[in-house]
Design the sequence.
C-alpha cells in the first residue's frame, strides 16, 4: 500500500482507487505530486524546481509543499507557525528521513484510528529546520481496502530554548484548480449539519469553531468538490478532523488557480509552548478522495469509522431500544412516574429506560444544581438503587443522564469551590442556561468530576450513560496555567475531556456511552472514539430530522446517530406528523422513544411493537450496510429517499418520505443504487420482481400518497 521509490525519491500511498504521491525535490522539500485517481507508474519530477535558484520567493509561493511553515515566501496558508526564542515566525522544512512500518500507531492522549499489522501501514516522514530548532514528523496511514489517508503531525523542539506553536494543522492539501466548490456542514442548535455548497473563489472560504466544542454551528469537515457534484458523479476530497474542540477548515484559491485546503486546531486563541526535547501532537485528520461523487465518499467514511475508529464493544451490536423521559416529563418526574413509563414500555417491547436531566440535587428546573451529583430523594425515594431494581424487575435495563463538565452558580459545588469554574480573575463570567464550565484541566476538578461519575455508575445497575454538555466555553482562563501559557487552555480542555471518557470506559467496560451536546454540538469523529452513538439533535421532528440526518450520514455511520420517535405536536416546532413516519425516520439511527408512553393515544401506542419488530429485523442491515442517498428533500423541497444495501447485494431497504403531497403528480420514480445489475429482486410482501439494472437505470415507482409527511419502507431481496 505504501511504497518509496529511491531513484525518483517519491512516496506512493495507494488505496484501492486512489493514489497519494509525494516527492522530495532536488532542493529537499517535500511536495505533493498527485492526489486523486490511482496511478501505478512513477511520476516525473515537476519542472518548477529549476525556478528556485533564480527566484526563490516565486518558487516558494508556487511549489505544492506538503507541510509548509511560514515566513519564507510561501504566502498561502501555512500548515505550521512557530515563534522561536528570537520572536520570529520563520521556518523552512526540508526532508531528513522516513520510515515505513506495518500497523497504525496510537496517538498519545488523542482519539485515533486503529489497525493491525495485517491491515494497516504507516509512513512517517521527518522534516526539519535546524536553525529554528523545529522538527516535524508527518504521519500517514492507510488501511487495507479503504480509500482514505489518515494524517497527523508531531512538532518537536530540537533547539535550545522553548518555542510557541501559533498554528499547527493536521492536514494541508494542494490541489490543481478544477473549478472547485466547497461543501460544509453548518447550522445551529436544533438545526445541525445542513449541507451547504459555494464556489471556491479567491481568498478564504471555510468554517471554524471557537466555542471549545466542535459545535452545532459549523463542523470539522469540508469537502472540496468539482462543480455540481452529485451523489454519483464528480470528484470529491473530503477532510474530517478527529477532534471535539476548536477547529478550522478552509480552502483558498491562489494566484495560479491552485487550491490549498487545510484542517486542524483553530489557530485563533491557540498558542502552545514547547520546551526543548518536548513535542506537540496534532489531532488526526482523514482525507477521502472519490471520483464517483459524494456517495462513495460517505461509504468510505462509514467503513473507516466502523472498522478503524469506534472501539466500543457495542459498535457492531444491536443497541437496546430505549425510552428517554426528557420530552415525556422534562424536570417533573418521580419514581412512580418513571415506573409507570417503564411498565408501559416493557409491554411494548422497549428494552431500556433512560432517566434524563433532573434526578439530582435540587434540580427542579435548569437554573440550578449542576455539579451536585447526589440523588434527589424527594423525587426518587430510596435512591437509584431502588429505582433501578424496580426498572430491572420490569425487564428493562436502566440508563442515566449526566452533564459532568458543568456547574451552576446555584449549587453546593459552586458554593464550596467558586474558583473551579472557568473565568478570568476580576471578571464576571457570562452564563449560558444558568451554568458555567468546570476547569477540568485542573487535577482536583478533574478528579471530582470523574469520581462523581464513578459514584453514580457504581451505585446501581446502570448500563448506559448519556454524557451531555450544554454550553460553549467563554471567559477562558485557567488557574492551572501561567499567563504565557493560557493559549494552551482550549486544547488542554479537550485532552482532559478525552482522558475522563477514557477513564470512565476503563472502569465500566460494558457501559454504553452516548455523547450529546445540546443535541449534536459535539457529534464529531473525536467523540466516536469514545462513544458508539451520539444524540444527533434536540430537534426530534421527523421532517426537520431529514436534513439533519442527511448531513450526519454524509460522513458518520448510521449506527452512530441517536434518533428517537417523539410526541406530536412536536415540542420544538409544533408540527404534526404520522407516528409511522416518525418511526421510519428514527429507524435509520440508533432508534428509541422520547415521549410519555402512558399519555399517547391508544392508536399510536399500538404501533410501537410493530416499529420495534422492524428495528429488530433491519438493524443489522442498517448498522452494517452501505448507505445510498437517492433523493434529497433539502434539494428538491418535496421528498426524501435513501437506502441501505447489504454489502453482498442480497438485500436493500429503501426509505421514502413524501414530505409534501402534490396534485396530479402520479407518484415519483426513484433510481436505486448499489444493486447487483443481473440479480432479480423481489419486493417483500408483494409478487413484484425487478432486475437490479432496471431498478438502478430505470427506477422504482412509488405510487402517489395523499397527505403531507407520509413515508414508505420498501425491502428488496435477491431471489
Ligand atoms: C440537552 C439534550 O440534548 C437533551 O436531550 C436533554 O438531555 C437536555 N439537554 C437535558 O438538559
Sequence:
Amino acid at each position: 500500500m505504501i511504497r518509496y521509490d529511491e531513484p525518483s525519491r517519491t512516496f506512493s500511498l495507494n488505496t484501492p482507487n486512489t493514489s497519494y504521491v509525494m516527492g522530495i525535490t532536488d532542493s529537499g522539500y517535500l511536495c505533493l505530486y498527485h492526489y486523486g485517481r490511482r496511478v501505478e507508474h512513477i511520476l516525473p519530477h515537476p519542472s518548477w524546481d529549476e525556478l528556485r535558484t533564480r527566484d526563490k520567493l516565486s518558487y516558494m509561493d508556487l511549489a505544492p509543499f506538503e507541510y509548509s511553515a511560514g515566513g519564507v515566501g510561501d504566502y498561502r496558508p501555512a500548515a505550521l507557525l512557530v515563534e522561536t526564542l528570537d520572536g520570529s515566525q520563520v521556518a523552512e522544512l526540508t526532508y531528513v528521513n522516513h520510515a515505513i512500518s506495518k500497523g497504525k500507531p496510537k496517538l498519545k492522549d488523542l482519539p485515533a484510528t486503529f489497525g493491525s499489522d495485517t491491515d494497516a501501514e504507516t509512513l512517517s516522514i521527518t522534516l526539519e529546520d535546524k536553525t529554528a530548532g523545529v522538527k516535524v514528523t508527518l504521519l500517514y496511514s492507510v488501511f487495507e481496502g479503504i480509500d482514505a489517508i489518515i494524517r497527523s503531525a508531531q512538532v518537536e523542539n530540537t533547539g535550545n530554548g522553548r518555542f510557541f506553536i501559533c498554528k499547527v494543522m493536521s492536514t494541508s492539501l494542494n490541489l490543481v484548480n478544477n473549478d472547485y466548490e466547497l461543501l460544509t456542514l453548518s447550522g445551529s442548535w436544533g438545526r445541525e449539519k445542513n449541507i451547504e455548497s459555494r464556489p471556491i473563489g479567491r481568498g478564504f472560504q471555510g468554517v471554524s469553531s471557537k466555542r471549545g466544542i466542535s459545535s452545532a454551528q459549523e463542523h470539522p469537515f469540508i469537502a472540496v468538490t468539482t462543480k455540481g457534484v452529485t451523489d454519483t458523479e464528480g470528484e470529491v476530497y473530503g477532510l474530517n478532523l478527529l477532534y471535539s474542540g476548536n477547529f478550522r477548515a478552509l480552502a483558498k484559491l491562489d494566484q495560479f488557480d491552485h487550491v490549498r485546503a487545510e484542517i486542524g486546531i483553530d489557530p485563533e486563541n491557540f498558542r502552545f509552548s514547547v520546551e526543548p526535547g518536548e513535542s506537540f501532537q496534532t489531532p488526526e485528520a482523514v482525507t477521502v478522495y472519490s471520483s464517483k461523487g459524494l456517495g462513495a465518499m460517505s461509504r468510505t467514511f462509514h467503513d473507516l469509522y466502523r472498522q478503524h475508529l469506534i472501539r466500543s464493544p457495542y459498535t457492531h451490536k444491536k443497541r437496546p431500544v430505549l425510552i428517554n423521559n426528557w420530552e415525556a416529563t422534562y424536570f417533573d418526574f418521580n419514581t412512580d412516574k418513571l415506573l409507570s413509563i417503564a411498565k408501559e414500555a416493557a409491554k411494548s417491547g422497549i428494552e431500556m429506560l433512560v432517566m434524563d436531566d433532573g434526578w439530582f440535587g435540587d434540580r427542579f428546573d435548569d437554573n440550578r444544581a449542576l455539579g451536585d451529583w447526589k440523588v434527589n430523594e424527594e423525587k426518587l425515594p430510596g435512591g437509584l438503587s431502588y429505582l433501578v431494581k424496580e426498572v430491572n424487575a420490569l425487564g428493562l435495563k436502566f440508563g442515566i443522564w449526566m452533564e459532568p463538565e458543568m456547574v451552576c452558580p446555584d449549587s453546593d459545588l459552586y458554593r464550596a469551590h467558586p474558583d473551579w469554574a472557568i473565568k478570568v480573575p476580576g471578571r464576571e463570567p457570562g452564563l449560558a442556561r444558568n451554568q458555567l464550565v468546570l476547569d477540568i484541566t485542573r487535577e482536583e476538578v478533574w478528579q471530582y468530576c470523574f469520581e462523581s461519575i464513578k459514584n453514580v455508575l457504581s451505585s446501581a445497575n446502570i448500563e448506559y450513560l448519556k454524557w451531555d454538555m450544554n454550553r460553549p466555553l467563554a471567559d477562558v482562563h485557567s488557574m492551572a496555567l501561567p499567563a504565557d501559557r493560557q493559549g494552551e487552555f482550549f486544547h488542554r480542555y479537550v485532552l482532559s475531556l478525552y482522558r475522563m471518557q477514557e477513564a470512565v470506559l476503563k472502569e465500566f467496560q460494558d457501559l454504553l456511552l452516548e455523547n450529546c451536546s445540546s443535541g449534536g454540538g459535539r457529534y464529531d469523529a473525536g467523540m466516536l472514539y469514545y462513544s458508539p452513538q451520539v444524540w444527533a439533535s434536540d430537534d426530534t421532528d421527523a421532517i426537520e430530522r431529514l436534513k439533519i440526518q442527511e448531513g450526519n450520514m454524509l460522513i458518520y455511520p448510521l449506527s452512530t446517530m441517536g434518533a428517537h420517535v417523539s410526541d406530536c405536536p412536536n415540542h420544538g416546532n409544533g408540527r404534526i406528523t404520522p407516528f409511522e413516519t416518525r418511526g421510519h425516520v428514527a429507524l435509520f439511527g440508533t432508534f428509541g422513544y422520547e415521549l410519555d408512553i402512558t399519555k399517547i393515544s391508544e392508536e399510536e401506542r399500538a404501533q410501537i411493537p410493530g416499529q420495534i419488530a422492524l428495528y429488530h429485523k433491519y438493524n443489522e442491515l442498517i448498522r452494517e450496510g452501505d448507505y445510498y442517498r437517492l433523493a434529497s428533500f433539502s434539494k428538491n423541497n418535496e421528498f426524501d429517499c435513501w437506502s441501505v444495501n447489504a454489502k453482498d447485494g442480497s438485500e436493500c431497504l429503501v426509505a421514502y418520505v413524501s414530505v409534501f403531497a402534490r396534485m396530479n403528480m402520479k407518484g415519483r420514480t426513484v433510481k436505486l443504487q448499489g444493486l447487483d445489475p443481473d440479480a432479480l429482486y423481489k419486493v417483500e410482501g408483494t409478487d413484484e420482481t425487478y432486475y437490479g439494472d432496471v431498478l438502478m437505470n430505470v427506477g422504482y415507482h412509488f405510487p402517489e400518497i395523499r397527505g403531507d409527511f407520509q413515508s414508505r419502507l420498501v425491502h428488496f431481496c435477491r431471489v
Observations:
- Residues 326, 356-357, 401, 468, 470, 516, 518-519, 535, 538 surround DGJ (CB under 6 Å).
